[in-house]
């Protein structure tokens, strides 16, 4: 890479602007009395190759002069070397001054131009969370939002832009922010088309993709959702389920699309559990538009499932735990299902997962990279039958599955 072009010129200009404040805010280190002067002299003379060599040595020392890091980041030709150096310094200490995040900002600009999404997203997240002391915090957030946009992470980009709007220092970026916001919304509207109510009184209603939590935005594919409600529909046709007397419970609700589908198809009530603050608030706003027969609860399902207060006798449970849970919490998920199945005679459970859990007594179907595992209790809607016959109504689950096919 030659020392030309917009990225290089931008980095050089930023370094020039920073250096004036650096001398005032960060006095010369007593541990390294000449290192910065030497490096800065190379910078002024345009001797960037030597600057990089000297800086690499200086930055390996125990005490880091962050002014050298700033010059190094602006002059280093190899982005992988910058990434490696920043990570080494970042991991040495628990906190860093604003000038460290100035260097991160310069690297984010380079990641954007070089389309290095992996490094850009990694450092963008760190900068967003810890870089508030940087004099380039607003520009850094904007750059991070651009990287997320280019990576197709439109929901995450929107959240960064919302955060950016709250900064007074972002006023000079208002026009750029607005243009990016419009682009993000246009892209997100295309994604929203995949999250539509498929049937019932709300058919065709679009649902926003869920707000990312820890980078995760997985949601239920349309074909898997259709399969769930096809099975539910077969129960209705066989007279085994009366929707008007049943509740649909959506654990790990995310976008709420499964519960909204259930509401649209005629369930008496829907109950949603979502632990993330912003997601749960959005769910309340969404469902308030359509009905009063809903409940949104912000609770940890694994801690409170044995205290659930759902009075309806006929229940359908749907669970789509974060896919990361299947590495360490598979047994917790199974314990939750076992409790739900034992707690009520009239219950069906559906679980979406990235793997086949291979549980005895459950049926599993594969849809692309996703699996749907389900079980229907043997006794169904006994409360709807004459009392004298209730005890006689029991059907083996295996025969139900055979009839389904």
From TrEMBL:
GO molecular function terms noted in the UniProt entry: methyltransferase activity
Gene Ontology annotations of biological process type: rRNA methylation
Alphabetical UniProt keywords: Methyltransferase, Transferase
Keyword Ribonucleoprotein: no
Listed Pfam families: Cons_hypoth95 (PF03602)
InterPro entries: RNA_MeTrfase_RsmD (IPR004398), SAM-dependent_MTases_sf (IPR029063)
Signal sequence coordinates: none
SUPFAM superfamilies hit by this protein: S-adenosyl-L-methionine-dependent methyltransferases
Full protein name: RNA methyltransferase, RsmD family
């Amino acid at each position: 890479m030659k020392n030309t072009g917009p990225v290089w010129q931008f980095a050089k200009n930023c370094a020039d602007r920073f250096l004036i404040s650096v001398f005032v805010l960060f006095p010369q280190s007593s541990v390294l009395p000449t290192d910065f002067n030497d490096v800065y002299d190379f910078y002024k003379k345009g001797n960037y190759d030597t600057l990089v060599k000297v800086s690499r040595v200086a930055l390996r020392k125990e005490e880091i002069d962050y002014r050298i890091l700033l010059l190094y980041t602006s002059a280093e030709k190899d982005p992988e070397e910058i990434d490696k150096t920043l990570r080494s310094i970042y991991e040495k200490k628990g906190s860093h001054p604003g000038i460290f995040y100035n260097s991160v900002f310069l690297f984010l600009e380079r990641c954007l131009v070089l389309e290095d999404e992996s490094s850009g997203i990694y450092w963008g997240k760190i900068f967003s969370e810890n870089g508030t002391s940087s004099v380039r915090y607003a520009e850094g957030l904007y750059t991070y939002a651009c990287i997320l946009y280019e990576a197709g992470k439109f929901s995450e980009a929107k959240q960064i832009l919302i955060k950016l709007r709250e900064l007074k220092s972002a006023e000079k970026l208002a026009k750029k922010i607005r243009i990016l916001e419009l682009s993000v919304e246009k892209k997100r509207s295309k994604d929203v088309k995949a999250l539509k109510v498929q049937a019932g009184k709300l058919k065709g209603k679009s649902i926003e993709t869920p707000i990312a939590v820890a980078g995760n935005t997985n949601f239920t594919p349309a074909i898997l959702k259709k399969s769930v409600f096809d099975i539910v529909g077969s129960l209705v046709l066989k007279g085994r389920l009366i929707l008007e007397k049943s509740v649909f419970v959506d654990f790990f609700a995310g976008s709420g699309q499964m519960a909204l589908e259930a509401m649209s198809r005629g369930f008496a009530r829907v109950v949603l559990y979502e632990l993330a603050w912003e997601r749960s608030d959005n769910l309340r706003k969404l469902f308030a538009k359509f009905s009063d027969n809903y409940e949104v609860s912000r609770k940890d399902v694994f801690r409170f499932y044995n205290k659930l207060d759902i009075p309806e006798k006929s229940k359908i449970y749907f669970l789509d735990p974060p896919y990361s849970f299947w590495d360490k919490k598979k047994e917790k998920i199974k314990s939750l299902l076992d409790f739900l199945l034992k707690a009520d005679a009239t219950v069906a459970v559906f679980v979406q997962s990235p793997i086949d859990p291979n549980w005895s007594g459950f049926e599993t179907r594969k849809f692309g990279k996703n699996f749907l595992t389900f079980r229907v209790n043997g006794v169904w809607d006994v409360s709807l039958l004459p009392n004298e016959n209730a005890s006689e109504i029991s059907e083996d689950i295996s025969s139900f599955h055979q009839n389904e096919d």
